[in-house]
Amino acid sequence: MTSTLPNDNIRNFDDQITNKLISEIIRDRIKNSGKRFSANDNISDFINPGELEILEKEVASRVKDLLKSLVIDVENDHNTQETAERVSKMYLNEVFKGRYHEQPKVTSFPNDKNLDEIYTVGPISVRSACSHHLVPILGECWIGIKPGNKVIGLSKFARVADWVFSRPHIQEEAVMILADEIEKLCEPKGLGIIVKAQHYCMKWRGVKEPNTSMINSVVRGDFRHDLSLKQEFFELVKQQSATNNY
Ligand SMILES: Nc1nc2c(ncn2[C@@H]2O[C@H](COP(=O)(O)OP(=O)(O)OP(=O)(O)O)[C@@H](O)[C@H]2O)c(=O)[nH]1
């Protein structure tokens, strides 16, 4: 598709040669490498320095078109004059930052004392959006670890969870993706994750159920094979949910 957008800023140097939008250039790179670019995939490896700013302008232009199609007077309505730019910035750098930005830096340390007791971290805030309607999924998650040879700082579980959840998701897949990332980072002997969240596509619209939540979990390694360890994980999380403040 040739660019029909009014703002030349949304093109970069490559685009001047190929006459492609920056989103098309990025999409082509991903396709050429045979990778996926589903809503819950991170595509930061395919975005060069400076291109996110150009993409932000392209998305803003599209959001402006959406507002116009919704017959909102973006020229004269003082409340919506910069809405397109705000929404674009919010998607790319805030609520969906886990698609466009690299994983936060996580340092791992050797498990020098060979700790092999399990520990749990939580509640960690879950802020996501459903892939179907792009409305919020809000909740909490708990992570349980039986360490292997590596440990990571406690805060890093929250940072990685925030990065993973900040994408459009379905909850079932979000939990699996978070488990994959944590396994890569600290190679635990056992891993458990529980997520409890409310879906605004069920709360704000659709069936409009105000209090329904979804709880799901994933258990891997020793947590999967050893029933008593799995029970200990669920028991620790139950205690953690009951005692939030000290
Ligand atoms: N399994 C699962 N379903 C989800 C999740 N988030 C949202 N949904 C549901 O996915 C469905 C979206 O697909 P459709 O049924 O085609 O959407 P819809 O016709 O707008 O459905 P309604 O919400 O019933 O109005 C809805 O039922 C949502 O409640 C999730 O994380 N997991």
UniProtKB/TrEMBL annotation:
Signal peptide: none annotated. GO terms for cellular component: cytoplasm. The keyword Hydrolase applies. Pathway: Cofactor biosynthesis; 7,8-dihydroneopterin triphosphate biosynthesis; 7,8-dihydroneopterin triphosphate from GTP: step 1/1. It comes from the Bacteria. Its EC number is 3.5.4.16. GO terms for molecular function: GTP binding; GTP cyclohydrolase I activity; zinc ion binding. Transmembrane segments: none annotated. Residues 61-237 form the GTP cyclohydrolase I domain. Keywords: Hydrolase, One-carbon metabolism. It catalyses: GTP + H2O = 7,8-dihydroneopterin 3'-triphosphate + formate + H(+). This is GTP cyclohydrolase I. It comes from Prochlorococcus marinus (strain MIT 9301).
